[in-house]
Amino acid sequence: MKRFLVLAAAGLLTACSTSQVDLSPIPGSITYKGQPHTRLKNAPVGSRIPHEFRNQFGERISETYVIEPDRSLRIIDRHRIDGPFDD
Questions:
Q1: Dihedral pair phi/psi, residue 32, rounded to 5°
Q2: 35: which residues sit within 8 A by CB, 6+ positions away?
Q3: Rounded CA separation 87/77 (Å)
């Protein structure tokens, strides 16, 4: 029984770490109206790019993008930030 529980837990952890959440752009996202016209040619593939903005409700949002092999940007993380917005 212990072996089954260990294997089940390991399977769940593997599933969680390999699953990808597909975040859709929201107003304020860099990719909201499509990919930017200028491509990031000097940044290596896999580089992460942070971006902060206010959403339509005035909340401060932080997004992280990763540069894909085709030089497009993909959102990999989004969360709301508490506190004042530094302009």
A1: -55, -45
A2: 72, 73
A3: 22
Q: List the domain boundaries for the chain.
A: 23-87
- Rg, C-alpha atoms of the chain: 18
The reported pTM is: 0.68
- What would the pLDDT profile of 6-17 be if each residue is shown by its tens digit? 444 445 444 444
How does pLDDT run across 24-48, given as a tens digit for each residue?
Answer: 999 999 999 999 888 778 889 999 9
- Residue 65: how many other CB atoms lie within 10 Å: 21
Q: 25 Cβ partners below 8 Å, 6+ apart?
A: 31, 32, 33, 75
Closest-CA residue to 60 (of 72, 52, 50) = 52
Rounded to an integer, what distance in angstroms lies between the CA atom of residue 77 and that of residue 21? 9
Token output for 71: 């030089």
